[in-house]
Prior knowledge:
By secondary structure, the protein is α/β, with parallel strands linked by helices. The protein has a single domain, classed as Metallo-beta-lactamase, Chain A, CATH 3.60.15.10. It is built from six helices and 16 strands. The chain has helices spanning 58-61, 64-71, 79-87, 158-165, 182-192, 212-218, and strands at residues 7-10, 16-19, 25-28, 48-52, 74-77, 94-96, 102-105, 108-114, 120-123, 126-129, 134-139, 145-148, 169-173, 196-200, 225-226, 234-235. The strands form three sheets. It has a seven-stranded mixed β-sheet, covered by helices on one side. Strand 7 and strand 8 form a beta hairpin.
Amino acid sequence: MNGTGIGITWLGHATVLYRSPTGKQILVDPWIEGNPMSPPQAKKLEGIHAILCTHGHGDHFSGVLPLAKKFQCHVVCNFEISVYLESKGLTEKLYGINKGGSVDLDGIRVTSVHAIHSSTIEEGEKMIPAGEPCGFVIAFEDGTRVYHAGDTGFFGDMKWIGELYQPSIATLPIGDFYTMGPFEAAVAAKVLGVRHVVPIHYGTFPVLTGTPAELKRQLSGADVHVIDIKPGETVEPELVPRV
C-alpha cells in the first residue's frame, strides 16, 4: 500500500493538526491554553497555513483568534463566527462559509457539512449565539479526503457525506455525553464507508467515557482501522482505496 502523504497529529481533546502532502499545516478546533490533554508541542506550533473551526464552544474555539493573529493564516468557520472574529480585528483571510459551501486554500478544498450539536461563544458572563455547528470535508492536494466531524451526534445523512465526498479517513468524537459515543461512532464509520477512523473528544473529563478500545470492539469484523493516537503523536495512515 502507498501512504496517503497525510500526517495527522492529535493535540488533545478535539484539536487536530493535519499536514498536507505538500507540507501545509491545517489546524482544526484549537484549544491549547487550559486543555488538560494538550501535549507540549501544541505550544510550539509553527507555520500554520489554515485554521478550521467547527463551532463556538471554548474547547474548540478559544485558540482561533490568538493563533490566527500570530500566523496570519486562513480561517474557515461559519458566517456568524466570522462576524464575531471581524469584530475582534480579524479581517484578512477569513471565510465565513456555511453548510454546503467550499473554499480553496491554495490547493486544499474545504467544504462545510452538517453536524448536530450547539454553538455559542462565552465572553465574560455573556453567552453569544454562534450560528450552527458544522463538520468539514478536507480534500488535500493529492485527492485524499478527510471528514472531520466536529462535535456531533449520529445523523442519517452521514451516508450522503460518504457517497458525495468519499472520504477515506474520518475523525470522529467518541466521548459520549456531549457527542457520539463509541457505538454511534462505529455506526457512523460504517455508513460513511471510510477505511480509517481517528477518535477524538474523549478522556479529557470524567464525563467523556468513550474509549478507542470500545470503538474497536464496536467495529469488530468491519473493514475499518481505528487509529488510536496519543496526544502529541503523529501518524501517516496508509490509504486503502474505496471500492
